Structure formats: structure tokens, C-alpha cells
Amino acid sequence: MPGNTFGQLFKISTFGESHGLCVGCVIDGMPPNFCLSESDIQPELDKRRPGQSNLTTARQEKDQVKIISGVFEGKTTGAPILLLIDNEDKRPEDYLNFKDLFRPSHADFTYQAKYGIRDWQGGGRASARETVARVAAGAVAKKFLREKAGCEFLTFVESVGDIKTGLNYQEVKAGDIENSPVRCPDIAASQKMVELIEKIKAEGDSIGGVVFGVIKKMPAGLGEPVFDKLSADLAKAMLSIGAVKGFEYGSGFMASVMKGSQHNDEFYMANGQVRTKTNNSGGIQGGISNGEDIYFRVAFKPTATIAQNQNTVTLDGQAAVIKASGRHDPCVAIRGVAVVEAMAVLVMMDHFLRYKSLCKN
Amino acid sequence: MPGNTFGQLFKISTFGESHGLCVGCVIDGMPPNFCLSESDIQPELDKRRPGQSNLTTARQEKDQVKIISGVFEGKTTGAPILLLIDNEDKRPEDYLNFKDLFRPSHADFTYQAKYGIRDWQGGGRASARETVARVAAGAVAKKFLREKAGCEFLTFVESVGDIKTGLNYQEVKAGDIENSPVRCPDIAASQKMVELIEKIKAEGDSIGGVVFGVIKKMPAGLGEPVFDKLSADLAKAMLSIGAVKGFEYGSGFMASVMKGSQHNDEFYMANGQVRTKTNNSGGIQGGISNGEDIYFRVAFKPTATIAQNQNTVTLDGQAAVIKASGRHDPCVAIRGVAVVEAMAVLVMMDHFLRYKSLCKN
Amino acid sequence: MPGNTFGQLFKISTFGESHGLCVGCVIDGMPPNFCLSESDIQPELDKRRPGQSNLTTARQEKDQVKIISGVFEGKTTGAPILLLIDNEDKRPEDYLNFKDLFRPSHADFTYQAKYGIRDWQGGGRASARETVARVAAGAVAKKFLREKAGCEFLTFVESVGDIKTGLNYQEVKAGDIENSPVRCPDIAASQKMVELIEKIKAEGDSIGGVVFGVIKKMPAGLGEPVFDKLSADLAKAMLSIGAVKGFEYGSGFMASVMKGSQHNDEFYMANGQVRTKTNNSGGIQGGISNGEDIYFRVAFKPTATIAQNQNTVTLDGQAAVIKASGRHDPCVAIRGVAVVEAMAVLVMMDHFLRYKSLCKN
Amino acid sequence: MPGNTFGQLFKISTFGESHGLCVGCVIDGMPPNFCLSESDIQPELDKRRPGQSNLTTARQEKDQVKIISGVFEGKTTGAPILLLIDNEDKRPEDYLNFKDLFRPSHADFTYQAKYGIRDWQGGGRASARETVARVAAGAVAKKFLREKAGCEFLTFVESVGDIKTGLNYQEVKAGDIENSPVRCPDIAASQKMVELIEKIKAEGDSIGGVVFGVIKKMPAGLGEPVFDKLSADLAKAMLSIGAVKGFEYGSGFMASVMKGSQHNDEFYMANGQVRTKTNNSGGIQGGISNGEDIYFRVAFKPTATIAQNQNTVTLDGQAAVIKASGRHDPCVAIRGVAVVEAMAVLVMMDHFLRYKSLCKN
């Protein structure tokens, strides 16, 4: 009931605070007898890792993952997998000045209102650092889905502020995403994004962006009807990321200005498979995958932490001015790419196992 | 695990098919000793009811709700509440021709792929008729939240196709929504929407739209951190509605083009309350309510059923042409207003009870 | 969270009060494409049905089940199955005198303490009548397990008061159970039980008993480690029956006086299968089935309703005397046989589906 | 769905293997703003700790608990609490000889059947070492229940083999339990138990026992009707302990030979409270606490590991003989006392929070 667990059959429970000893998660429901080592997980963490360039936070974390349980002689046993990632570059003292202040558009005030207490060191549990654990768990599931279901994931930055790639997702290559410091596969757009972010950063400001996600080669039939639609679970997964303000899949908000005759995806046969000519459905119909690409967009707000003066109030209701001096990402969407992908993976993994439990006659 | 249940502490489980005997739900977790009768529920069902004007489906359903259990001498007892709504105007024969066809952008193919069998009568369980049960359950929770938490809900059509109200939600009055046949409180826009829908309908086509929702006077502190954020649960709730393609709250997708200095909501004190000057956060920070209005947008696609020829395939993989002659809504967003509101209510009710369980010291 | 749902992947939610309109349940998670009709369910309900002999309550209920949803053209579709059973022989007036009294060893006081309100008509939701719904759901699962897993269930009365069958469960035949009015397959013991119950009934009293359950031919590997052990879920299932005071499986309480050298079940091979020579483990080791018979005992207390004067207090705390004149079972264990079997079936069905979801490599 | 989580609102997820790096758990749902330190937990772990006397296993573990997250400046924050306990005295090599054997009445065979792989080092996840985590979590909840609900727990060994205390639980003092090396508060019985266990141990054998548990001063109204009865959840909790074969509460199996007129607990008033004269109900009626003492018995089987020759089979189906030389408890019920108490605490804590969420009007 408390909110730190995600998934039903592939269940992850995260823990740990931004400036505590470590962050991590327990994975319960990992299929047994599957080869798994830390080197399967580390590359995904490295994509999310802070301190990679001047476009992300200056916090230096190796984000080295340790598998503490659930793997025996290189294979999963079906037991819970505990993953730990130490916090190395902690600087709680950076937050001492904000101890009694509510940082605007952070969770300081709401945590105080809810719990009557809060860990003021870097937002504690509300920090984006919590997402390290999600990425680690996602890496485990991603390896499984790739090997057992042949499924592929592609996730990239579509826009930063008003700079947007003109590329269609079908043209995108995974390597081009990795080559871009802003995870945008469109070289020209990527360059402009870099310039924009550098300018924004110099102003002590931050900027929003949109992340685009694609799930390829999922079989038809995944997802549950009514409340646990694939689309509903993807939406929940994405909106559970702190800085995310919107989600759409397939035609998305554009669908609201379309006619049915434009929007409907006609069926045809190809190689004995039922296919759709267009894919406004975004690979999901009635909440269940139809075998086409699943694709979606996720809107990130600008980072709440900015190096400018802002008005706020103190714990005891006094007016105050706050100016962040700490380390932060000028555009959180960039490192958000890894988190969006991890969450998509976790949703698909859970539904893959649910699909397996169906006992279709 | 199967997908027909929503909520944790206020849990609804829906059942029933479009052309079966009835639809309905079981509510488990209703607080005891609360006055409840069918007349508390019926008005909400009447808002969603089909056959009200020529802008909605011609199916005639009274949608009369019956409380079968859980209420004793006019009060809830804490026992599960069974709500039943008969299907009166069933016409399964309308679907006989589509029995072996996959209707484009419906769930026919995906249900077949998932289950190996499907109820072809009006989409069976995938029909929007299932949402009657959600609206009935929502009516119960809405009465409770209004009386016990003083909370109010306002939900309306913001746009149909490219016609959009210019009204700010703060100017919207509940009565104006009810007076509009398209549930749009802006008289001028409403009239244009009516004209557009009539034109679209005459063409045998359908059109999308956007529904705007507002939750007022919720106390600060509702919602869970990390995965069960209020925003995440609202997103899931909305995307669980069949025709919905996107969700955003507060600044939404617009946040992606904004700077932090524009987007952040500064805090100030008013009447001893911590308030924010702006509300780009949409009343939710770190997944938890901050006491400001919670507002969001929900994108509806155009109805998949249209009276035009469309290409498709049959169950056994033959090319075919389909043309609907049945009854359908030219713009499903209109009746979607009641469903969006019900889902928002259900999310808030569940989090209200979770909040009560917190035992803050 | 509220307590009216059982199971994870095969989930039943019951509703309805003793003297309300009906009782029933929603089954969510039934595998699709499986033949199912009311005639598959009715025989199980008939075993539990009241009014069959003078050894059970005089309440006359046909307990005719209706399948309201989830079955299409004779087959399950994967959609929720609503089962309804009308209450026909309601006599709420029998309880008018007890309206403001707490009947001893009933749930009247605790429901009042918990909810601040209670349905005083026959115990409302706390009545054994609620178990009709469990038996109906169990019948559905039992058919599935029999046909798809080859599994068999055998459940009978082992003792009534101090009269006990000397039969080993392996000698018991299903037909002999059905032929006994007290569901005891041992003819001599059965006759003595009948006499005891008639005597007890004449005294206006009631008597306890023990029900013995066997699950045969379940494959090895069902059950989850740690908290969701098969044994733990069976224990919960049985103790969820109102009149049950104890549960043991395999060697049970006798294990507490045994040595390891007596108790351990040695392994050997037979027909390529790993088997155990003895079965003190009761077919479950480490919470997981080992392929041997699963067997257990369930202790029923004497019916709380008796036709003798008893001291109690009123709602407003006054001393009072109560004497039941209503209809009741002198030995609730007899009809409890059907409920115990249904609960065992529900546990096994749920774990069967969980087993299917495992994705063992 | 996987079985490593217990509880709904106070949720614990355990992880770790017997001879892995550590064992531990994540607690999700701990109320915020509550003082908590390692010294609150350690004393409970010390009660369960191995190596305390020659009556328990010779394995030497300090079982030092570390709070890794969820506590800030000495208080809980509402965030998940990670508890870690290192495995120090690991000797996986002790199990090398059993690597390809199925130890009788252990979980070796069933884990292999379920997962197709198993951690053979001391039973891996199926080891009683997993219960360290339960005791640690229980200590946290126990402190909360004591301080916030005034609730007390009393748990002791009632019998070892056929030696049984004649003490009524009401006469038992907590200190007498702690003073007994076998956790039996009856000095004479305790001494006989010690002698019996020493004799059994010398024979290379083991012996069963019964643990008695009492929960005092719980308010009336805890527990959920129907499936989540307090009694049902206690039964599940106890049967989730590996060596437990039976559970009964209140009159338990004795109820099966009693008449209603003997068994019913009459109500009376005392100090404005509704009380019962007798307590055959064991403090629970209709699954809900009535304010009287909750008491129950838990049957432990003899430890499966014995230092005698036993027949078994190998992984590839060959007959074999096994003789344990490792360290084990001759009577697992002794250290089981701490685990039984922890599980009782966890059940009550969860229902305490569920009770708080009820919103009774």
C-alpha cells in the first residue's frame, strides 16, 4: 500500500535517500535459472550516471551496483534480488541552508504536510537519485525480455525546450542516441540542444524536454483489459517519475483533433500475421498489445532547482528568499531517458509474466 | 492481478459485457455508517447515459442502478456494495456481421490474440459500456469526499476537434457544463462544437476531444511518494479509459518548453496556509497534494466505430471490408466527461483513505 | 485491503448478507476458453445447501446459482464471472428480538466495535451464508483443476464431538462421504455421529467437529517460498471460515511430540519420480508441493447459536438474557465440508496459475 | 505475487540466503516521526540469535542489525526502512556433500522441482536464517504497538516433545521466559525440557515442540471480516514459518469436542467495557478482536537436519545415504519463540494501520 513498490509479478521495491548510505531495490519475481551478473546491469546505470558532462549535475557518483542476494553461481534462483548502489559523493551540508525552507516546486512542503517530518538532505527520498534503483532493476528485466521475448527498447530525447528533432522514430539508431551528449539521435538538433542547455545553465536556469520511447517486437496479447491496460500501466510508470508532467502514446493528444476515418488503423495480412497499415494506436488496442511498435512521449518539466533568487516560506511560515548553490541538472530529461526506458521495461516485464500465467486453453 | 479491479483501500471490481445481462461493480472499502441510496448515484449515471441527444449514441438505456448489498436501513455497513445496472437496449444482432471480422482500432484483434476467444457482441467487455460501473462507484465516493473532506470536482469538455474553449478553468461554473449538450461551459464554443459534431456525424465519421478535470479543496498531504504518486495514479486512471490517448497535469506538455524560472511555483503565506503564487505544479508536488487545485487534461481519440467503409481482415486472415451500421457516439469525449470525473474521484477516495491510515505522530 | 477478496491470480470477491437480496461473488482471473455452465456449479452448492436433513438448519434455500457475466456461448472469455445466488427463505423478523443484543460468541459485538453499525438480520455479512459464494467459486476452479491438472479433492467429517472415524484417509471413497448424512465415510462412526447430533439438537445445544481434507495428484512445485507457502495459504483459507479454530497439515500438532528420526520422510525413486516413503510432510516441504498427497485437518467449534438461555449485554450496556429460537445447524462441521473443500480448491487454483507464470528457464 | 512480502499497510519484504552475504528486509509503511534506532531492534534479535547455549545450533552469529535507510536524525520519515544483518559464520563447505542430494523433509527437492535450480548452501532461501529479518521487522512494529496502542506480547515454549508446562498463560511472567534456556516459564518443566533436549541431541536426533503466544491489550475492532480475519492472518503468519505444522487459537482443536453451551463466551459489563466471562473465542470473534486476550498455539516439527543415516536420492535419481554433520538446533521451537512473536506483531501492526484507515463515521 505504501508507494515504494512497482509491479505485480515482477515486483520492485526501492529504498534509500539522496544523501543516505545507499540507494537500491529488491526485485521479487525474477524468473529462475537466468544468467545474471553486475556487468549486465552496470552499462544501464552508466547511461543515467551523473557527472558525465557539463550538461548534467556535477555530483560524482560511480553508481557501482552490487548484487547482494538472489544470484547463485551466476544464475538467478527465483529468490529476491537485492541490488545496492552506494552514495559516494554525498554533500548533505549543501542543504543545511534549506533545512527550514520549502524549495519551490520541490516536494519539501508536501512531504512535511504528509509526514510531519522530512529528510532535508537533497530531498531525501523525493530526490531523482531514487531512480538509480529503477534503472538497475530495469537492466535485469531488459536482459530477460531481450533474450526470452526478443524485445527491444529505444528511448531518446525528442525535444529540449523548443528545439525538436524532425526524425521519425523509425529512422533512429541506438548508436546515434548514445553518441549524443543529450541523448538525441538527430545530430543537428542535438547540437542546438547542447547550445541551449549551456546558455540556460549559464543563466542559472533550467529547461524542460520531451523523451520519446519505443518498444519493439513485443508479441500481441500483452496487457490486461479495463484497469490494467498496458497504456494505463505505462502512464502510471512514467508519471511516477518526479519531473514528468504528461504522457501520451500513439497519436496522443493529436488524436483529439482527428477524425475516426483518419485515425483508425486498418488491418491487413503480412506473412501470416495480422498487421495494421498505420499505427495511431501506438501498438496498443483496448489496452492490449497488437504486435506493432509501442511508442509514447513523456514530458519533463524544467529542473526545480535553479541558481536564481526565489521567494518562498520557512517551516514556521516566514517569508524567505532562496537561491540554490548545489549541483543540479540544467535539463533533467537527458538523464531521464534511462529512467523512462527502465520504467517501460518494468511494465513490459510484469505484463510478460502475467501473460504467461494466463493458461489460455 | 487480472485487470478488473481499481484501488487499494477503496477498491472497485467491475464486471459485465456490453450486450450481456447487466454491468456493475463491487465496492470494497466503503466507510461504514454513511447515508447512501440509489438516488445518490442515479444523477451521475444520468450524465453519462446514452441516448440523451442526437450527439450521442442512439442506444436507449435507463441505466437504473440497484444497490444489492452493503447498505442496511439507509446506511453503509462496511460490507461490500454490489451495484447492478441492467442492459435493456441490447442488440447483439447488430454485431452478427462483424462476428468474424476485426473492427479497426477496436480491441477485437487483441482480445482474440490474448484469450483465443472473444465476445463479439458490441465488444463485450472492451465496450465503453463497462464505464457505467465506474461512474456508479464514483458517485458513491464523490458523495463521501464532498461530505467528509469538503472536496469538489469540476470536469468539462475543453475541445472537440480544433474547437476549443478560451475559458480559464477558474471561471467555469458547474451549471454551465450541465447546460451544454457537449458539456462545454463556454456557450460560444459549445455551439460550434455541436455544429462540428453534427457535420461529422452526417459524414458517418467521428471526432476526438479533450476533457479538462479539476479537483478542488483537497487537503495537502494526499498521495504516496515514488510509485503511487497522485499524478501517477491519476494518469493510470485516465489511461484505463478505452478511448484515452494522453494525460497531462498542471503545466503538462507545455512544461517541456519552459524554463525553471518560469515554471517554479513560489510559496507564500495566506491565512496561515502555505500557498503557491502560480500553480504549474497542478496541485501536486513530489506526487503529493499541496492543497492547491489539482487540474489535468485527458485526450480522447475519435470513436473507432464509423459508418464508412474500412479495410480489415477476418478471423481466418482473409481481407474484408467493414462498414458499421450500429449505434455509436460521434464524439466519445462528451460522455467521457462523467467517466473522467468518476476516475478522478476514485483515485482521490483511495488516497484519502490511505492518508487516514498513516498514523502520523 | 478490505477483507472480502481472496487470491492473487484467481481472485474471488464475495458480497451479500444473510437476509439481503442475494449472496454471490465475482471471479477475476478465470482462464479463457473453458467450458462452463451453471450445471457445473450447482452440484457443489447442493452439498452445502441447508435444509437437507434434520441434522442441518431448517432454512430452506434452493441455492440456485446464476452466471451473470464472463461466459459467452458456453465458454469463459477471460472476463470477470459474476455468480449470484438469491436468498429465498429470508426471515429477518427472527432476529428482531436480538437487534439490540450481542449474541454470545457471534460477531455482533466486534462488528459494532469496528464499524459503529451492524446489520442485525442473521449476522448480516458475518453469517455462514456468505460461504455459499465460496463454494460456487470453488466449483468453477475445481472443474478447471480436474480437467487441466488432473487434480482431485476429498473432504469429509473426521469427528463430531468425541466420535471419530478410525479410517485412514487413503481408504476413503468419495461415494461413502456422499452417502453419509454427516459426510463421514465410516458407516459405523457416521451412525453414531447422527445419534449424537440428534441428542445435542434435542437439548437445544450444538457440537463441534473436525473436517479432514485431501488434495491428490497436484504436481510438485506449487507454492511460493517464505510467506506465501502453500501451507500458509491453506491455513489462512481455513481460518477464514467463521467457525474454524484450528488447522494442521501432515503430522500437524503430533509433530510436536515426535523425533526427527521418526518424522523425516525419506526419499526414494518410483517410476522415475522422486517420492517419499512416509508423508508426515503432508505433501508440502518448504511451503511447496512435493507431489505427494496434501492432507490437513480443520477444527470447527460448536455453532454459537443455541436454544438455551445465555447471559449477555445490550447495545447500551444493560445485562440481558438471550435464547435463540431461529434456525441453526447443530453441527456446523457437516456443511463445513463443502466450504473447506472450496477453500482448498481456491488456494490450489491460485497457486496453479502462479506456477504457470514462473517462466522457469 | 512472489512470496517474499508480508502485510498490506505495514509491508515487509525479506531477502538473503543462509550462506550469502547477509539477510534483511525492507519495511514499507512505517509511520513517520517515530523514534527508532538499532538498539530498539537488537534485543529482539538477541533472543533468536544462534549459538547462545548448547541447546541451539553452534553457528556463531552476532546478528548485528544495521538501519540503512528510512531513519533520519533518529526518527522514521515514512520512507522504506532497509535493515541488514550480515552473515558472519558462513560455512557453505559444510553443505558440499549434500550438493546433489535431497535432504529428507527439507525444501531441497521442492525448490529443485519449482525452480530447476537451487542454492544448496544451507538451504539458501529456505533456511530458518531468513527469519532473522522477520524478527528485526517485528521489533520495529513491536515498539510502535507498545508505545502507541499500549499492546503487549507474551510468547513462550509450552511443550517440548511430551513435556508440557502446566502453567496457565495468565500466570506467566515475561522474566521467567527469558530466564529459561528453553523459553519455558515453568521452572520444573523447563528443567525437564533441557534434559530431554540434551538426550535427544546426544542421539543425533531432534524433537518437536509447541509455542504459545498471547497478545494483550489490543483494542476491540481490529481485523477484517471474511477472508482477512485476524485469526486467518495469524494462521498464515505462523504457517509461513518453515517448521510449523499447525495453528490453533482460543479453544482450538478442543472446540471440536465441546458443546455450544460450554464453548460460548457470555458477555458482561465491567468498568463500562463489554467483556466476556470466558475466553474460548481467544479474543477474536468473526475475525475481529473483541478486546480480550488473543492467544494461540503453534506446533513445531522436529528439526529436519539430524546426525543419523537417512535414505534419500540424488539429483539424478540415484539412491543415496545422507548423514548431517553440520550445525543445527535439536529443538527448533526454542528459537522459534522469537519468530512466532515477530509474526504475531507483524499481523497486529498491519491490522492496526488498517483499522486506522477505516474512517468510521
Uncertain residue ranges of chain A:
none
CATH topology of chain A: Chorismate synthase, AroC fold
Mean pLDDT of chain A: 94
Structural class of chain A: alpha+beta
Strand content of chain A: 15-25%
Name the descriptors.
homotetramer; 361 residues; alpha+beta; 5-stranded antiparallel sheet; 8 helices; 18 strands
How do you describe this structure in short?
Four copies of one chain form a homotetramer. Chain A has helices at 38-48, 108-115, 131-149, 174-179, 187-202, 230-239, 260-263, 332-356, and strands spanning 5-6, 11-15, 22-28, 65-67, 71-72, 75-76, 81-86, 152-160, 163-164, 209-216, 244-249, 267-270, 273-276, 284-285, 288-289, 294-300, 310-313, 319-322. By secondary structure, chain A is α+β, with helices and mostly antiparallel strands.
